[in-house]
């Protein structure tokens, strides 16, 4: 997620030294502007962002730290729109959510994904209402999804959408459901008749949230249609689906600011767990190359029980993440959905995620190597990677059929990732991140010197 943008930001930041002059700033800003436009961020948003970063950097005194701070602040501002973030429960259950969007945008899949997240991560009792009766196969599709994820469904091919919604709401009240998700029929374009149906269902259901599911691959059209749905129906959040197929990512960056409605979730694959909350602070971190430890922990918690997740987070914090944890994580990761999106959340692994493409991580060379190495280790070595001196590494290389250089490389990667994760999971992680970025850019940087 956001690989291209993250790379471009790195490039821009690299153009400027700890203390520098206007010329260097100009270069950095040009780089920033070019890359944002290339990523399909809307030109107005780009202009606003670049102008503000320039102004703030100058005001603070041109230098890398000022530039980073300005960029981070401005990114956060652009990504944030007034409204809720992530999933927000109504003060009185059930929380009713109306899912809307154009045909094929991913409403039904996303309804299933949201239900999965609420059930698995938040332990909520979820009911889905099949209010799409336009398409014959729609109800059947939802039935299959509901069955697969073990969530209750109200559906009736012979009823009207209004009746289905009424029944679902009554059932939710009677049987104390926490959340009702209403899947609706798609619109080919902005179709008046269907819009009226939607408005009727809205008035009937009085939803706490109206989500507009937009297909990320449609680029700027996603922004325009979201705007129309906002005007006509009054959406409270946007969900960008099929983000895994959109390598540029610019729409996600601009849409909240352009439409004035928060981007709430991103669909990152076809499987049910492939849904990420879009929390501006975290995304800013990811954009600036720092991964998303919190998001990772949350995702992990969804499939591992909470105790294990806490233990792992503690281990990361203490820098004790070892090879056994890694193997355990790999097993759990199978359940986490798209490997690429997971790797992208780990600090320092963004590049690896990019190289992976759509590769099957589990059967990838990298992971096979690590697994082969681990199987050649003694239990003690698995517990404590620091034990691995040269003679032990030689033995592991032989045992796993790898060259010693390969063993060294993998070990280094593993240690770096664990180290970075530790740094960023602690207090002041953001500050640390900035310092790390400076070091990474080779611009010297003087961590520890107060501003
Ligand atoms: N790769 C990828 N595919 C997705 C994602 N979300 C949905 N899809 C696919 O997009 C297609 C359409 O998804 P649906 O959920 O049926 O879309 P819909 O909006 O309900 O469609 P209608 O009910 O016909 O309006 C399906 O093949 C999904 O698997 C995603 O985040 N990533
Ligand atoms: Mg559908």
Give a description of the structure.
The protein has 21 helices and eight strands. It has 451 residues and is of the alpha/beta class. It has three domains: 77 residues, SRP54, nucleotide-binding domain (Four Helix Bundle (Hemerythrin (Met), subunit A), Up-down Bundle), CATH 1.20.120.140; 192 residues, P-loop containing nucleotide triphosphate hydrolases (Rossmann fold, 3-Layer(aba) Sandwich), CATH 3.40.50; 151 residues, Signal recognition particle, SRP54 subunit, M-domain (434 Repressor (Amino-terminal Domain), Orthogonal Bundle), CATH 1.10.260.30. Helix 9 links the parallel strand 5 and strand 6. The chain is globular. Bound molecules: guanosine-5'-triphosphate and magnesium ion. Guanosine-5'-triphosphate (GTP) binds next to helix 5.
- Total helices: the number is 21
Helix content: 55-70%
Strand order of the largest sheet: 3-2-4-1-5-6-7-8
Shape descriptor: globular
The CATH level-2 architecture of the largest domain is identified as 3-Layer(aba) Sandwich
Determine the CATH topology of the largest domain.
Answer: Rossmann fold
Look at the structure and name the CATH superfamily of the largest domain. Answer: P-loop containing nucleotide triphosphate hydrolases
Bound molecules: guanosine-5'-triphosphate, magnesium ion
The Cα radius of gyration reads 24 Å
- Report the sheet-strand fraction: 5-15%
Largest sheet: 8 strands, mixed
The assigned structural class equals alpha/beta
């Amino acid at each position: 997620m956001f690989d291209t943008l993250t790379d471009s930001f790195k490039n821009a930041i690299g153009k400027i030294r700890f203390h520098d002059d206007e010329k260097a700033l100009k270069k950095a800003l040009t780089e920033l502007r070019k890359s944002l436009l290339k990523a399909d961020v809307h030109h107005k948003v780009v202009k606003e962002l670049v102008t503000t970063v320039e102004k703030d950097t100058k005001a603070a005194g041109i230098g890398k730290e000022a530039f980073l701070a300005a960029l981070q602040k401005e990114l956060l501002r652009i990504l944030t729109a007034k409204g809720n973030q992530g999933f927000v429960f109504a003060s009185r259950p059930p929380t009713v959510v109306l899912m809307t969007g154009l045909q094929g945008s991913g409403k039904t899949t996303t309804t299933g994904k949201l239900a999965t997240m609420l059930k698995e991560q938040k332990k909520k009792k979820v009911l889905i209402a099949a209010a799409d009766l336009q398409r014959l196969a729609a109800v059947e599709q939802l039935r299959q999804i509901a069955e697969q994820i073990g969530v209750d469904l109200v559906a009736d091919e012979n009823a009207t959408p209004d009746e289905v919604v009424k029944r679902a709401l009554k059932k939710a009240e009677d049987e104390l459901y926490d959340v009702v998700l209403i899947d609706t029929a798609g619109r080919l374009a902005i179709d008046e008749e269907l819009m009226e149906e939607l408005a009727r269902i809205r008035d009937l259901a009085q939803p706490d949230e109206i989500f507009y599911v937009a297909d990320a691959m449609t680029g700027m059209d996603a922004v325009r249609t979201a705007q129309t749905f906002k005007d006509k129906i009054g959406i409270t959040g946007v969900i960008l689906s099929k983000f895994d197929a959109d390598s540029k990512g610019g729409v996600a960056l601009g849409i909240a600011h352009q439409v004035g409605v928060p981007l709430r979730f991103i669909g990152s694959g076809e499987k049910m767990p492939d849904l990420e909350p879009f929390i501006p602070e975290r995304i800013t971190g990811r954009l600036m190359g720092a991964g998303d430890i919190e998001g990772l922990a949350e995702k992990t918690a969804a499939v591992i029980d909470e105790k294990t997740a806490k233990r792992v987070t503690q281990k990361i914090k203490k820098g004790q993440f070892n090879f056994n944890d890694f193997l355990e994580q790999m097993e759990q990761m199978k359940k986490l959905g798209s490997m690429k999106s997971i790797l992208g959340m780990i600090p320092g692994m963004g590049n690896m995620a990019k190289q992976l493409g759509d590769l099957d991580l589990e059967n990838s060379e990298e992971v096979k190597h690590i697994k082969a190495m681990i199987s050649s280790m003694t239990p003690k070595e698995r517990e404590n990677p620091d034990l691995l001196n040269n003679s032990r590494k030689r033995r592991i290389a032989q045992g796993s059929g790898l060259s010693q250089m390969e063993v060294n490389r993998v070990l280094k990667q593993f240690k770096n990732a664990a180290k970075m994760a530790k740094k960023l999971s602690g207090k002041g992680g953001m500050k640390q991140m900035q310092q790390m970025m400076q070091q990474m850019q080779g611009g010297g940087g003087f961590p520890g010197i107060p501003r």
